[in-house]
Amino acid sequence: MKGMYYLAGSIIFEAFATTMLKLSDGFTNLLPTIGVAAGFLLAFLLLSFALKTMSLSVAYATWSGVGTALTVVIGILLFDEGISVLKAAGVCLVIGGIALLNTGTSQAQTAAKEVE
């Protein structure tokens, strides 16, 4: 359970760092550039902590998928990026894929415990 908190923090810092990357304007603005470095450093640090108790496949897929979905929302809200039916469907597919991956992993772990 602790790994999920680390993973959630990692996702938030990854989305922050990606947002700062946009604001850094090709690393020409100092404060957003520092935000990129700090955000990604913290994101990977927390991801490494999450991997102590979570499987790599589930943690990384969740990290990248939820981070992608969150970045889409940030782009729409902060940078006035458009949303289309295809973009919304793509985000839903990403989230659905993460849900299936997590469900499949939970079922496999339950089955493995029953065999023991």
Could you characterize what this model shows?
The protein has helices at 2-23, 30-50, 56-78, 85-115. With 116 residues, it is mainly alpha-helical. It is flat and about 55 Å long.
SSE diagram, text form:
Blueprint: H1 2-23, H2 30-50, H3 56-78, H4 85-115
Question: Which features does this protein show?
Answer:
mainly alpha; 0% strand; 84% helix; flat; 116 residues
* Poorly predicted parts: none
Instruction: Please state the structural category.
Output: mainly alpha
Biggest pleated-sheet summary:
none
* Rg, Å, rounded: 16 Å
- Estimate percent helicity: over 70%
H and E order: HHHH
Give the number of DSSP strands: 0
Q: What's the overall geometry? A: flat
Ends distance: 22 Å
Short overview:
By secondary structure, this protein is mostly helical. The protein is built from 4 helices and no strands.
